[in-house]
Write a structure and sequence with these properties.
The structure holds 2 protein chains of 2 kinds.
Chain A: E1 3-5, E2 10-14, E3 19-21, E4 24-26, E5 33-39, E6 46-52, E7 59-61, E8 64-69, E9 74-79, E10 88-99, E11 102-107, E12 111-116
Parallel strand pairs in A: 2-12
Antiparallel strand pairs in A: 1-4, 3-9, 5-6, 5-10, 7-8, 8-9, 10-11, 10-12
Chain B: E1 4-7, E2 10-13, E3 19-25, E4 31-38, E5 42-51, E6 54-57, E7 64-66, E8 76-78, E9 87-94, E10 105-106, E11 110-114
Parallel strand pairs in B: 2-11
Antiparallel strand pairs in B: 1-3, 3-8, 4-5, 4-9, 5-6, 7-8, 9-10, 9-11
Classes of the chains: A mainly beta, B mainly beta.
Chain lengths: 117, 115
Amino acid sequence: AQKVTQAQTEISVVEKEDVTLDCVYETRDTTYYLFWYKQPPSGELVFLIRRNSFDEQNEISGRYSWNFQKSTSSFNFTITASQVVDSAVYFCALSEALGSGYSTLTFGKGTMLLVSP
Amino acid sequence: DGGITQSPKYLFRKEGQNVTLSCEQNLNHDAMYWYRQDPGQGLRLIYYSQIVNDFQKGDIAEGYSVSREKKESFPLTVTSAQKNPTAFYLCASSTSSVPSTGELFFGEGSRLTVL
């Protein structure tokens, strides 16, 4: 069975600090996709990134960066110079193929990030 | 605008009553999904449907039922058999691709509180 582990339940930082959210996954699939979502207090899920299992290049988007390491089954997310607006719950997720071109997502339990001024 | 609409956003019900949550999409996606979110538990899959008139149980289907009579609609009924129905419910949809990318499009959620 697939599994996604986000060991950090809650992280508190002060604005402008860098913060890394950890994600470790388990899967038997050779082709899979990893995701990060942000959930602000309003509740909707905001898609941040999708990474396929064959692409281990790190990615940077503004203050966000992602480190995918297949050897350790990890897909960590770093926010540089955090801001109060980054306060949210962040979910890491792993695709599970259903066949016929569809997948479901297995989610971690989420990490709540609190950024104080 | 294309998207997924869930209603109602907030719902209060008495214990023992069945409740139906609506999910409509105009993205022309074939597949639709229902997830449940509890504090500190992440999202867990309740049911999914890949095609009209067909659906499969997810990890926590007990106490729930669904129907898929139209491509655009995938309502979820929380029955009185569901022991802890108070939760945040998220509907999602996806299109098919080879290989499947797993990209789901989510609605804004429905928060159900059972009193």
